[in-house]
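Intended use. Records like the one below are meant for learning the mapping from a protein sequence to its folded structure. Do not use them to infer anything beyond what is encoded.
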Amino acid sequence: MTSRRAFVQGTGWAALAAFTGVPAMAAAAPRWAPYRDTISIDALSGSELFYLPEGDPGVPAALQALRDSGMTALMVAPAPQGQFWYTDAAFEKTKREMEAWKAVVARHPDVLTLIGEHGDLERARRERKVGVIFTFQGTEPLGEDPDRIPMFRAMGLRVLQLTHNRRNLIGDGCMEPGNAGLSNLGHQVVERLNAEKVVIDLAHGSQRTIREAILASKAPVLIGHTGCRALVDVPRLVHDAELKLMADRGGVAGIIFWPYLREQGQQTAADVIRHIEHALKVCGEDHVGIGTDINLTPVDVTPNYARENTEMLKGMIADGIFEKGRDPNLLLFVPDLNMANRFEVLAGLLSARGHSDARIAKILGGNFARVMGEVWGG
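Structure written out for the chain above:
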């Protein structure tokens, strides 16, 4: 995913509208007045800032997008994702990347701050900085050694996703036809994550992995970036039964911005809202959030970007990530939410549909903040 997240970057609404033909309706949507005083957390996102060398001409635009976003915190993944089994390379690469990304945060203390405990979220909101929450999209950096969990936590890890799309030593990812659940090692890892106060994320898990991990965990869990399989029957999304089980045990599911949100065609803000509203019915308003899985900086859809995007989508269709017959020209991001302050715009759209300010605040980040407080303390 790192390469995809680095790819989805740039600026410019005009080029996007010209490329997609999607009207800029969200750009003119009413903003939500309480936004800048509300904790907002994207349960998987990123910035090209982490990939650019110091002094790169793209750095100022990346920093400006972070300022413009009004976000309290982004969950970001510096580890290799779904690419390695247990190897020293995965372990060493993860350590290097974590230190490099912490150095980026340290270079820009006026814009970024590292989140280590619950109180840091309120501090980031108050100081108008964007918090950085480290996660891994898979347990590959642990290898067969749960004792690495406290070491990674000391380095800044605060959330750990058990699997990516494929099978690993912990359990099956969503693209595995066998749908195996947690392994014995998986149960050990869940127990250790609870003990070390690291939030468990079950996004990308198979149905059995998700269910068994929810039941095994003594703390609430996240399904940080997903959607509702009752609306679109694809493996990457989650069935109502698991969403309700997660909610009943205090967890939160974040709605993704990817094309999974509809069976065909380009996903829009209306599709995001459709999945949010279905999740609210199944889980209740205390258990729904947002995990875009999209870089923060708005995308400038240049002809070169469009070509690269199409080739990438063709590869994902060939790999089975998207089903055969999908349009390879689809954009991964939501065209009418292609702005840095996308949470503010989405909140305005939810408000216009009659959702209360209190509910919107929970969806934007209050629910994630609650789980993080319960698990991390502080």
